[in-house]
Request: fold
Amino acid sequence: MSEPHDEAARRRTFAIISHPDAGKTTLTEKFLLYGGALQSAGAVKARGERRRVTSDWMEMEQKRGISITSTVLQFPYRNCVLNLLDTPGHRDFSEDTYRVLAAADAAIMVLDAAKGIEAQTLKLFEVCREWNLPLLTFINKWDRPGRDPLELLDQVEAQLAIVPTPVTWPVGIAGDFRGVVDRRSGTYVRFTRTARGATEAGEEVVEATDAAVEEGDAWRVAADEIGLLDEVGAHADPERFRNGEVTPVFFGSALTNFGVRLLLDAVIDLAPPPQPRLDVEGRARPLDAPFSAFAFKVQANMDPSHRDRIAFVRVCSGKFERGMVVTHQPTGKPFATKYAHSVFGQERDTIEEAWPGDVIGLVNATDVKVGDALYLDGPVEFPRLPEFAPEHFVIARVIDTGRFKQFRRGIAQLDEEGVVQVLRDQDLGDQAPMLAAVGPMQFEVASHRLEHEFGAPTELNPTTWRVARKTDESSTASLRALHGVAVYARADGTRYALFESPYWLARVEGDHPELVLERLVAEGTAG
Ligand code: G4P
Reply:
């Protein structure tokens, strides 16, 4: 009989982080190919088209390829089960990404060999560090001209303050990629192309003496560089990897499949399986404890043919069996898990059982919000996911007042899902709520969904507010009496004091030290 502990040991739950265009989609697709979940690559459609639209949601509406629309892709590889969590490919940062990474146990950072670390890589890396996620690095696009490999390693170390420890080393410069040396065994793996990378890349293990003859200069350069790495002791120590001090590095090309298998093997061999999760009191909940899970994402109307609301939960302990009745921690209410799904792209499958590390989509889990715990037997509460301070604020007004009901319903839904935060002024009420977000692209998503999903075209008007601080009831009246400060509240009662500039905020803080003006935990990562 399976036990949670054993099943957890077979699982790897991870995410891929990258700057747009570095190759996350291509790599995802290739992982599925190597995992046997795709017959041939190329099924992820319409990339050129995808580029023109601005958000994942809109892409989804237009029925894009699988890798973008899905929250989690589960596929077998070797004797393991891999759960690949999808982080949204937004050009600006969203809270969603932050939450998805809270449900991962490790991440792969994909770098474009010609570009190295880019703005979004840096931001996402910081989130991984905040969650203590062990990080593998894949230097992609080695099939075309790029930077010098040692220079790329220097950049990683200098900008991210993490020590890159190459596990594989390329033979042939970027643009003339022959194969890689696996530094663990010293074997040289030579690659051969397949047409458009549609099937697995041919790999041939070549003896060093033969490689020296056949690869000539490329081999000598690689051997010298490897000698250099050996001298500085750049080896992937498992303990330091799990602590986030070092990042094992792999070279490859997702397009031609070069190096994909070695990377996927590393997910199993190096990335940690699910560990006991700490509860709100800091106690580790054993993997074999009764079922527990936490919600990291809520999404409504994922597919026009299924108009509903799904709460994605990550299993932390025990065995999940569909139909079991679990308790929803914040309300103490029972919740029957009759409609539990695994979501693979647009496809949904009923899921019968799940284990620690797996993700389940619970359909119509109306009360379940991001961060909530679900459990069987003894209660458990997991630490709340930190909230971001919004930095962008607009006023939303429905264009046709006859659609106000739809507008209100849409606004409430977007708030609950965390697409935007909805703030209300105590005097203005519901007519013109303020929408607040970490990145401005969230407004495009909100506006698109209000119009197309709720039938309530909405105008969004800019405001002069720039900075938010959390405040409380006792400070509200004094803050509202001040010039250049507003106080707005969220549906859950959280109050924000808004300022037009950091300068004005600093003045108010200086003049009124008695007022409560709290920074939000994760502030500063966004922007
Ligand atoms: P993203 O999800 O990180 O945004 O990146 P995506 O995989 O969509 O890749 C962005 C572009 O980079 C695509 O080209 C893709 O084919 C290309 N690419 C990905 N990996 C490699 C690689 O290893 N080598 C090379 N040479 N190119 C790679 P595109 O022209 O924008 O789209 P398409 O027309 O090729 O589909």
